């Protein structure tokens, strides 16, 4: 028992072979026992200087000092995805080895892979004018490998919100530490159309067709109603945008624009009741009035002259009034 390999407590026994002729220096000849020990090998504890990594789609390995694969094993020291991990270091043989502090329990080192941070996309130009073509919001910082975008391509006028969504929120986040979709407000402006105007809105009746002279008419953009008339009266010209979604009047409205205009009745150059225009109001005019009433064929001019009671027509009452004018020389 003077030789050992396995850690433990031993007793070395020493015996004098010939006690007849030999003795110990103290005069005794008894067997001498000397206890001795083989201690377990002291193993330095693993130490990690860097325990934080950033996700990049590849494997990360926790690198430690003092690791010796001959005397220990390790688990959970290699990972790819974001998370908090515990690398576990275990002694292979407790009979022979112990940590330098005299313990043999597994050692755990906590380490982590943090989410990769991405800058939110930004746009310099967020306002466009409608021109019937597709408009795309151009952004800086968009990466189709890590995010998707919606509502960034439009044609019609309107206010839009482009949405940028992370494809993998488990391993990525925005640089402001959030994971919710990022947004950019942008717009396509309506085309501004000049409101139609007319300088001359009053005409005098002469039996011919009158057309309102309107500036700003574009029949590819608007419908036009009520600008041509013949008879005396008050009229309303109406102008309606054909595409109210993408066009707007310069007054920022899309409702119907109107211009009020009139064809006036000319003042007669002859005496009231002188239907035959001979310079006299007499029985002949009364007879004509009765015939016009009877056959209902009075012209606008006839009515202007012969409508004595101004009820909008020539009838027997007008004929009677004409006779009174003649009779009493009014």
Question: What's the arrangement of secondary structure elements?
Answer:
Elements: E1 8-14, E2 32-38, E3 41-43, E4 52-54, E5 60-61, E6 72-75, E7 78-79, E8 83-91, E9 97-99, E10 107-114, E11 116-118, E12 127-129, E13 135-136, E14 147-150, E15 153-154, E16 158-166, E17 172-174, E18 182-189, E19 191-193, E20 202-204, E21 210-211, E22 222-225, E23 228-229, E24 233-241, E25 247-249, E26 257-264, H1 283-295, H2 300-306, H3 316-328
Parallel strand pairs: 3-9, 4-10, 11-17, 12-18, 19-25, 20-26
Antiparallel strand pairs: 1-2, 5-7, 6-8, 8-10, 13-15, 14-16, 16-18, 21-23, 22-24, 24-26
Helix pairs in contact: 1-3
Structure description:
With 330 residues, the chain is mostly beta strands. Helices cover 10% and strands 35% of the residues. Helix 1 runs antiparallel to helix 3. It is rod-shaped. The protein starts with 7 loop residues before the first strand and ends with a helix.
SSE topology string: EEEEEEEEEEEEEEEEEEEEEEEEEEHHH
What structural class do helix, strand and pairing data support?
mainly beta
Mean pLDDT: 93
Instruction: Report low-confidence residues grouped into runs of 5 or more.
Output: none
N-end to C-end Cα span: 167 Å
Instruction: Give the overall silhouette.
Output: rod-shaped
Biggest sheet details: 4 strands, mixed
| Total strands | 26
Lateral arrangement of strands in the main beta sheet: 4-10-8-6
Counting H and I runs of at least 4 residues, what is the number of helices?
3
């Amino acid at each position: 028992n003077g030789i050992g390999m396995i850690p433990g407590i031993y007793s070395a026994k020493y015996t004098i072979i010939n006690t007849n002729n030999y003795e110990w220096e103290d005069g005794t000849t008894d067997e001498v026992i000397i206890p001795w020990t083989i201690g377990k090998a002291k193993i330095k504890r693993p130490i990690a200087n860097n325990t934080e990594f950033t996700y990049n789609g590849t494997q990360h390995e926790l690198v430690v000092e003092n690791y010796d694969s001959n005397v220990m094993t390790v688990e959970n020291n290699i990972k790819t995805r974001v998370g908090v991990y515990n690398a576990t270091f275990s002694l292979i043989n407790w009979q022979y080895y112990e940590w330098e502090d005299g313990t043999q329990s597994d050692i755990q080192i906590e380490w982590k892979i943090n989410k990769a941070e991405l800058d939110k996309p930004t746009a310099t130009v967020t306002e466009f004018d409608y021109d019937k073509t597709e408009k795309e919001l151009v952004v800086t910082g968009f990466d189709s490998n890590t995010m998707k975008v919606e509502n960034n391509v439009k044609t019609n006028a309107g206010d839009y919100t482009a949405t940028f969504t992370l494809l993998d929120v488990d391993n990525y986040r925005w640089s402001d530490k959030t994971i919710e979709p990022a947004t950019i407000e942008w717009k396509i402006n309506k085309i501004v159309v000049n409101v139609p105007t007319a300088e001359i809105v009053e005409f005098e009746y002469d039996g011919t067709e009158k057309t309102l002279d309107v500036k700003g008419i574009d029949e590819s953009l608007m419908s036009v109603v009520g600008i041509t008339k013949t008879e005396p009266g008050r009229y309303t010209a109406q102008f309606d945008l054909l595409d109210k979604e993408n066009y707007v009047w310069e007054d920022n409205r899309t409702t119907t624009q109107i211009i009020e205009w009139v064809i006036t009745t000319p003042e007669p150059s002859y005496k009231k009741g002188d239907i035959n225009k001979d310079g006299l109001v007499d029985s002949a005019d009364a007879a004509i009035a009765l015939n016009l009433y009877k056959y209902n064929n009075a012209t606008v001019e006839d009515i202007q002259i012969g409508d004595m009671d101004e009820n909008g027509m020539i009838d027997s009452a007008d004929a009677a009034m004409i006779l009174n004018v003649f009779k009493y020389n009014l």
